[in-house]
Amino acid sequence: MQRARRRRSKMGGGMYQIEEVERSADYIDYAVRQGGDYSVRIRLLVQNYEKYQTTKDYAVIVKHPDDFFAMIDLIRSIVPKTIFEFGIFQGGSALLWAKLFGARYCGLDALPDKPILHEWVQRLGLSEQVSLNFSSLQNDKAKIDHLFSTHFGGEQIDLIVDDCSHVYDWSRQSFEYSFDHLRPGGVYILEDWHWAHAAGDLWQKERIWSDKKALSNLLFELIMLFGSRPDLIERIDIHPRYAVIRKSATAPRIGPLSLDDLILKQGRIFEPI
Q1: How far apart are CA 155 and CA 62, in angstroms?
Q2: Number of domains making up the chain
Q3: Which of 10, 28, 141, 243 shows a CA-CA span of 20 to 30 A to 71?
Q4: Measured between alpha carbons, how far is 160 from 175 in angstroms, rounded to an integer?
């Protein structure tokens, strides 16, 4: 059974169509067409994530199918002109967001460079739009500041996505270093905050990543920041696998954040689990 969705983008190439063309136990393939012309084939992985890599025939995204379409609708509602993403992985989302929405995209990842992605960028005519920065850590403040300065000219941007290591400490630092680069009214998306609480043997019996602090700790802290500084955060929408943090429309520009200093706790100690 094929599933097709059509949406009119307010950025980029107008009408686009996303149509399911192949399905297996491991993945769902979607053909993305824009203005009637074929743009890119997306391979959406649902399991065995290390088995597949982006090739000349398709670009890989790892995401729950429901979240894939929900994210498209969410980003479409933001109408972003500028996007920064922690976590490129196989690069499918970088290509998709830039192509569908005509946004300037900058991403970083600790993984080594993937030449095939640069080929895709050229093939799709995105060389002036897309900046892919590999071998880069998400908690490297100097690198983050450099990318915002060089790719966005130091201007605050519309959308930041953290879909990187899912490690609490690093994701916390990413938020502290980058939130001031987000424009008032802009959106920060924290993906996979739920991993320590996900059902299934991999997470609850094999207890993968049980030696790491749960990423949900960061979400708890952002809720506390919301209560302490509503002038910085306007609202938080929590979904089963991602959270959407909207910056206040009147948020002041205060430089890098310190959650420890900004969150009011009546002198209590927050101990991450």
Answers
A1: 30
A2: 1
A3: 141
A4: 9
Burial status of residue 227 (CB atoms within 10 A of its CB: 0-12, 13-18, 19 or more): exposed
**Residue 135 domain-assigned?**
yes
Q: Tell me how far apart the alpha carbons of residues 137 and 141 are, in angstroms, rounded to a whole number.
A: 9
Give CA–CA dist 131/121, Å, rounded: 9
113 DSSP assignment: P
DSSP state letter for 101: H
Alpha-carbon distance 147 to 130, whole Å?
A: 12
Q: What is the extent of the structural domain holding 229?
A: 64-262
Residue 25 CB coordination number (10 Å): 7
- Report whether 43 contacts 58 (CB < 8 A): yes
Render pLDDT for 78-117 as a digit per residue (tens, 0 to 9): 999 999 999 999 999 999 999 999 999 999 999 999 999 9
pLDDT in tens, 245-263: 999 999 999 999 999 999 9
Would you say the pTM of this structure is higher than 0.70? yes
CA distance 109 to 77: 26
Domain membership flag for residue 51: no
